[in-house]
Hints:
The complex is a heterodimer.
Chain A: H1 14-24, H2 26-43, H3 80-115, H4 117-131, H5 135-146, H6 150-176, H7 180-187, H8 192-228, H9 240-248, H10 256-283, H11 285-292
Chain B: E1 6-15, E2 21-30, E3 35-39, H1 46-54, E4 61-70, E5 73-74, H2 80-89, E6 91-94, H3 98-101, H4 108-119, H5 125-138, H6 144-147, H7 157-169, E7 175-179, H8 187-204, E8 207-212, H9 215-221, E9 224-229, E10 232-238, H10 239-244, H11 249-257, E11 273-286, E12 294-307, E13 311-315, H12 322-329, E14 337-342, E15 345-346, H13 352-359, E16 362-365, H14 379-389, H15 394-407, H16 424-436, E17 442-446, H17 454-471, E18 474-479, H18 485-488, E19 491-496, E20 499-505, H19 506-511, H20 516-524, H21 531-534
Parallel strand pairs in B: 3-8, 3-9, 6-7, 7-8, 13-18, 13-19, 16-17, 17-18
Antiparallel strand pairs in B: 1-2, 1-4, 4-5, 9-10, 11-12, 11-14, 14-15, 19-20
Helix pairs in contact in B: 4-5, 5-7, 7-8, 8-20, 11-17, 14-15, 14-16, 15-16
Amino acid sequence: MTIEIATPSPRVSPFGRVRSLLRRSPGITFALIVLVLLILGAVLAPMLHTVDPAQINPRLRLRAPDARFWLGSDALGRDVWSRIVFGSRISLTVGISVAALSLITGTLLGLLAGMVSWLDGVLMRTMDGLMAIPAILLAIALIGSLGANLATICFAITLPEIPRVARLVRSVILTVKTEAYVEAAISMGTRLPGLMWFHILPNILAPLIVQGTYIASSAILIEAALSFLGIGIADGTPSWGNIMADARVYFTLAPWLMFAPGLCIALTVLAFNQLGDGLRDLLDPRLARSVRSFS
Amino acid sequence: MTGPLLEITGLSVRLRETRKPVVKCVDLSVGRGEIVCVVGESGSGKSVTAFTTMGLLPDALEVAGGSVLLNGEDLLSSSAARIRALRGRRMAMIFQEPMTALNPVLTVGRQIGEVLEWHEPQLTKQQVAGRVLESLREMNLPSPALLVDAYPHQMSGGQRQRVMIAMALVLQPDLLIADEPTTALDVTTQKQILVLIKSLVKVRNIGVLLITHDFGVVSEMADRVVVMQSGAVVESGPVAEVLSAPRHAYTRKLIDSVPRGGAVIRAPVESEIVLEVIGLGMTYAESGIFSKRRSTNALVDVSMELRRGEILGVVGESGSGKSTLARSIARLLKPTAGSINLHGVNIAQMGAGALRPHRRHVQVVFQDPFRSLNPRMKVGRALIEGAVNFGVSPDDAAKRVAELLAVVGMDESAIDRYPHEFSGGQRQRLCIARALASRPDILVADEAVSALDVSVQSQVVTLLGRLRDQLGLSIIFITHDLRLTSQICDRLLVMKSGEVIEQGPTAEIFGQPRQEYTKMLLASSPQFLNRSAIS
Lengths: 295, 535
């Protein structure tokens, strides 16, 4: 079919658009519910029938779930419910800050590589080198040398994600750069920063946002893995990974200890991935156009 | 002839979700050995009608009523399996874009062979190969024996479209549906494809439903015409009748928008020269580490001049170097030889910094209106960018936006909208407005109307002519379609393989073309050549 000739399409209010988006993609609805609950839990942690997650009570160890210990108690008699609620703070912080950090740094590097041709080779080969190091090994080495606190862990997980974002950004730029509107802007005398900020960046945002959700979910998994291995956040601060690590030894005695944090990790990762899938469908202009051209 | 081959009665199609009708109560029929053209602008429902017939309706649409009979068999009530069997055997379809309709990783021979293997499994390998070769030969393709092993990207657009037709006809269907089969092609190639379809109708006695937006094509091809507007048939009848005495206002509008041959004679423009190109050359060097150095000459010793208030048409087929010339003048490319004197300053080899102040004088309007506006930038913002870049304050630039929109015939309400809210023709107007924002002397329109419907083309061409008259703008109008140049161009430049082979006043080139190539270009344009014979 040739190009549509019509009056400007009627405008849809942002609210109406969000509503129709949610109806069309149940995945996003699920993801949003889970993530909102998680964020509420992390913010309101002290008010949700919780006690101090570090409080030890040796007399009440390895209790099965009951009215006092909603999810049982661990080997030191600490309340698992409280530990999981407080642990969500770690997971969410790691997920969101790693996604934000790697997106910002990676986008900057990708923009430079895509737009400034003499930087392209140097930057991209550095990124290739960085990608050759396994993420977990790099994280272990960094945490080993810098000490295990939240900031180092975020940095250690961010570093291997940067090249992925940079490469994505660069590859998208290579196609966007040849679009006629970019050439038009060049012939209108727009300088490089304006070109990047107004013409390139807004048009590569969609794949970036999607990539961000995937990075968040993988960061949560890596943090849990590091804690599980005993090289993440120290035992004093609960995180889903170290709750599972503690529970591992008592798996035959108190299997419920492992299920709850495991389920939390799985649900959170699933929610972020669903959000990513949903956003990818929604932000894909081709999809949007095919819906519009028949309406 | 017993009954029509295809008979569509009262067909209605609507959107599944909102039940908004897309096609309303359409009646049409196609007999054997007959070409029926369905004409209308984009969005008139002509493609949807074709897709319904083929059983290829997108999920968002559903049939609301009516019947589609092929050889008396009702297609709408047939099972999916039956439709699949009929597709290819009894009816076949070819599409607008031959590149995307072919599988890029399979050879042409394999793709045609596959169709045969699916539908006629009893054939031996030799028989399939024989049939494939024969079908390519029938399409007048050069050296079909070699083409069998070629991949789609190794062929030209016209060759690919012929392969598509070969594939569609290999099972000897009775009905061929062609959805804008030549819209994406050069005029010369279009002519060849149309001649081919016409001869196939004669030889095979098949029926063709040809969908087009171009009444020029209709007058060359059709036995009968069906004119559609917003989903409904507004007029139909034998081509001679509709062309000579159109009853509906919309039909008249479509017919009038087809550019007529015969150029308007214009007084030569005597004003000062704003742009002078001398001996321009562009060589693309391909230097691989492993392969031998190869070079392609996109431009060879091109010289031209452009005066204030003059429209210079640059005509040629794709690959003739006309786009390279445009991009060199706008300095989106750096030419490898020659000079480009803009107001007496040679900008051909300038670096980015020195070039910037000169960029203001030359602005470009590109071919594809869907890719030439930043989809994430509001129109108002896009229209001040150029002026602000060249030192106008944002407030002053914003004040001019309404004026710019008025110049291109757009409403002021466009300022707050995003590009996707506009149609192709409207976007092209916005692109012109954006180009005018920095008050250029020269506008380069690189195939600026080729992607538009014929009726919209004429509006944009008229607009360009008006801009020359009102603003004294010089315009380089690049096109493969000579018809479009006749009304507005003062002079023409005919290009072939990177060289200028002929130039002169438009009326002269239309009247006495010296080069064979120019004559061929002129002859290829679909026009009402046989109009006198009709009326």
